[in-house]
Write a structure and sequence with these properties.
By secondary structure, the protein is mainly alpha-helical. It has a domain of about 40 residues. It is about 60% helix and about 5% strand. The protein is built from two helices and two strands; from the N terminus they run αββα. The protein has a two-stranded antiparallel ribbon with strand order 1-2. The two termini are about 25 Å apart. The structure holds zinc ion. The site of zinc ion has 7 residues, from helix 2.
Length: about 70
């Protein structure tokens, strides 16, 4: 395996880039936190989307993370 000059810049920035992307992902997930059901009147739902939890955003993030783990 040969490391090219462009690869060096990519590797050097990866730690910072990873932190920034992780913070962005946490911010998105914080917006889509679960609001628990109340006395059987509602089901658990997303605070932002106001749809049953997990909403499509949380599902998309979870699916992408599961895909990156394999
Ligand atoms: Zn949501």
């Amino acid at each position: 395996m040969t490391i090219e000059p462009g690869d060096r810049a990519f590797i050097a920035a990866s730690r910072t880039d990873h932190s920034v992307m992780s913070a962005a992902l946490r911010a998105v997930l914080d917006l889509h936190e679960v609001v628990p059901a109340v006395a059987g009147l509602f089901t658990d739902h997303c605070r932002t989307c106001r749809t049953p939890y997990p909403c499509t955003t949380v599902t998309a993030v979870a699916t992408a993370l599961e895909g990156s783990a394999s």
